[in-house]
Amino acid sequence: MRRHPHVLGFAACVLIAVGSFGAGATRYRGGVLRELGLDFLAFGHGRGLMDLLLTAGIVGLVAAWVMLWKARPSERQLRRTVWWWTGALACSAPILSRDVYSYLMQGAMLRDGFDPYSEGAAVNPGPFLWEVSHDWRNTTTPYGPLHLGLGKAVTTLVGDNVTAGLIAYRLISVAGFALIVWSVPRIAKAIGGDPALALWLGVANPVMLLHLIGGMHNEAVMVGLVSLGLLSCLRGRWCTPGIALIALAVSLKATAAIALPFVVWLMVQRHSSTALGRAGMLVVSGAWALVVNAAVIHVVTVASGTTWGWLAQITGNSKVINPLAGPTFAAELLTPLLQLFDDTFRYNTALSWTRSVFSVLMLVGLVAVWWLFRPRPGTAYEPRAVAGTTAAYAVAFAANAVTLPWYYASLISLTGTFRPPPWVVKGAAGASIVVALAFQGSGNHRLYDAWFLALAAIGAVIAVEWLFRDVPKTPWPARDESPRGPSGREAHRQDAPAESRPA
Questions:
Q1: pTM confidence score
Q2: How far apart are CA 259 and CA 395, in angstroms?
Q3: Which residues of 407-427 are buried (b: 16+ CB within 10 A; e: fewer)?
Q4: Which residues pair with 322 in a beta bridge?
Q5: What are 285-318's pLDDT values in tens digits?
Q6: DSSP labels for 439-484?
Q7: Is the separation of the CB atoms in 383 and 391 below 8 Å?
Q8: DSSP-derived secondary structure letter, 319
Q9: Which helix H or strand E contains 264, and what residues bound it?
Q10: Contact, 301 vs 308, CB < 8 A?
């Protein structure tokens, strides 16, 4: 593998880390720059300079990611590159979102005797509250007991020290990301996929790195647990340990449960020859998955000192508006059309309609995907289980009332593991490029900037066509360590990937 993509990506991550302290999701009070007497870099022309560094870093990371796959790296080279990039990003301040401050605040609320499922952050004034975005100071949390338990443990350990709390959450994010790095290529190997493609598309992806490491979102731990759970189910005859791991992820964030129905099908496929038959095993397996799930969540709930109140908050908030969510995108198309006939028609009316319709479509879509990806007689179900889980995540996030980039981590992490057709890989790569570039260091986005969208889309199309122009229109082939490109064609000896050492 040529060294240039590796080095370019590492340099880009260093730029992001440096720029983040002035142009990231910076502290409202205190912070590293203020302690060093450099707080002039957090506003005015100084912030503009830091924003330039951060933006250049994000663009450089996206370019390095594209070039990396063009170099045809091996699995080992990709894993090494991922960790160099992760190490550099781990030194940054929070970027692209202020959610980590809310995580600290919610943990402090539980520590101090407040209920984050019924009260907003404003009931517990202090250093953490100062850093919470104003939009969320009176909002309850939709996350499960494991999320609050982690927050309580962190804030009990660090007290009200915001900087120490951020470091603790960065370590938690890296630990969750490590589970993803370890599990994803092994999932690909277990189902006959290409572990190098799985690592490149699902782990080294800029969306994953920027939002799970840079943004420190709890998807890092959730996706890590789901990945480990799926791997356990694929490797072992009995799925109970894997179900328990996925249930642990559900206790962090409910969307992890989308993987469970496909684990049920996996159990049905493996044990349908018993006296119960296929239908009986479906009932028994489904009931067992529910029992294990409820038991694990109950244990976490008791251990964390929380309640089951999160179930009432699962739908979350409705404040976030961006076209990544299908209902929002549909409302933005529908409103101008209806205003041609009624100029008093309001966008919020259309949005309430589309959210209701898409809620039904999500439910129908999830059931349809579960049924379409059911086991087929005479064939191994493991690849279909992973492909079905990936498709179900796509349906859920496309139809959800609120969708943010890091939500797609569940989908992205699995997309390259099975043998996806080239159009899936191309679509995922192109969308990742646009989404990675769309968000600014502070958390604002450019998804309503027509010029940005046009340029980003054109750039993504050019990059994808350049990257995959030799790929045949067949399912993505698995690769070994021989000098064979991901398109399945034999590489010339002089083009074979060469080992390289990290910069």
A1: 0.89
A2: 13
A3: bbbbbbbbbbbbbbebebbbe
A4: none
A5: 899 999 999 999 999 999 999 988 888 777 656 6
A6: B-TTS-B-TT-HHHHHHHHHHHHHHHHHHHTT--SSPPPP--SSSB
A7: no
A8: -
A9: helix 260-271
A10: yes
